[in-house]
Amino acid sequence: MSKIFVDACKGKATPYTPVWMMRQAGRYLPEYKKVRADVGSFLNLCHNPQKAKEVTIQPLDIVGVDAAILFSDILVVPNEMGMKLRFVEGEGPKFDNPIKDQDDLQRLITGKEAADKLSYVYETIKLLKKELEKRDDDIALIGFAGAPWTVSTYMIEGQGSKTYNLSKKMIYKKPKLLHKILQKTTDVTKLYLSNQIKAGADVVQIFDSWASAIEPSKYDEFSWSYMIQIADYIKENHPDTPVILFPKSVPLFIPKVYGNFDVFGVDWSTNMAYAKKHLGDRYVLQGNMEPCRLYSKKQTTKCVEKIQKIMGSSRHIFNLGHGILPDVPVENAIHFVKECQRVSKK
Ligand code: CP3
User: Fold this and answer.
1) Domains along the sequence of the chain with CATH
2) Residue 281 Cα, ligand 1 centroid: separation in angstroms?
3) The whole model's pTM is what?
4) Which residue out of 27, 86, 104, 138 is catalytically annotated?
């Protein structure tokens, strides 16, 4: 069966431009908060395929998006590489023993052994696949992983960071060690995404949320080239599965973008007309509404109309330019989705 979102990723004509939102399953939905409270914690939810399935489906029913994204987190990968992950309420993710040197690197579990430990994710995908088939509403399932650079920043800093000073110190003082960390993470991520596809994911997206922490002249070496290694592996082993890359905020890199993938995610700080000019012929573009526009229905409509005007009949998928924030009213998210579907209807 042809799914509108998969068709759009492949650049085929669709009856309207499909829409989904990064972080669409999450705390802005009271229904999500209830399930999370029932299971006790965010990580319990990631480890519980039945409940993870339930929250993946919520935005389909409540908000009306055209694709489902697997409920999990980019940090389950380093967790299964042997780095103990905790989520501290109000503070975010923490790793108690971040990577500082070669000895710490040696401790990491890598390759197939780490990828196999993520079996609860594959189980969630299998349950979702069954559920989506039963519903028969042509909704595609997106699998995902973090980009090696973004995931490595958490492994090196031990938590989120404003300055990324430990990770960036490695760029300039210990580049070989950083390359080894990135390669180990890449090796697990290739297998992890391939296993997600084997379990039933229709499309995969790689999130490079902290791309903009790297200066443009170093971006290819320390991040993009690893994302392309993963995309190449997916294209070789699953040629029919679309790959979306989302490097947040690297406008200066845009004219130099290369690689075998299908969809380029345009973040909110990048001018969509600029992205279209440089990439629109080679890739389907996804994005790029500033997520805070969602606080105002009027501003949301204005932006959706503007993006539609820029993209016209060019290949495009509506999305936010980064994740939806927890205090956005649900009705505004519904409004965004309806407006995207309305303005692009053929
Ligand atoms: O998009 C979806 O709906 C699917 C689920 C998803 C989550 N995280 C669930 C989540 C996805 C795709 C992610 C990706 C992710 N995780 C990224 C890349 C995307 C982005 O937004 O840039 C990053 C950097 C992370 C790491 C992460 N996970 C952080 C920094 C935090 C804490 C910050 C926060 O928003 O609270 C998380 C926790 C997290 N991941 C939550 C959810 C729903 C909130 C947990 C909760 O309290 O319920």
Assistant:
1) 4-344 (3.20.20.210)
2) 31
3) 0.97
4) 27
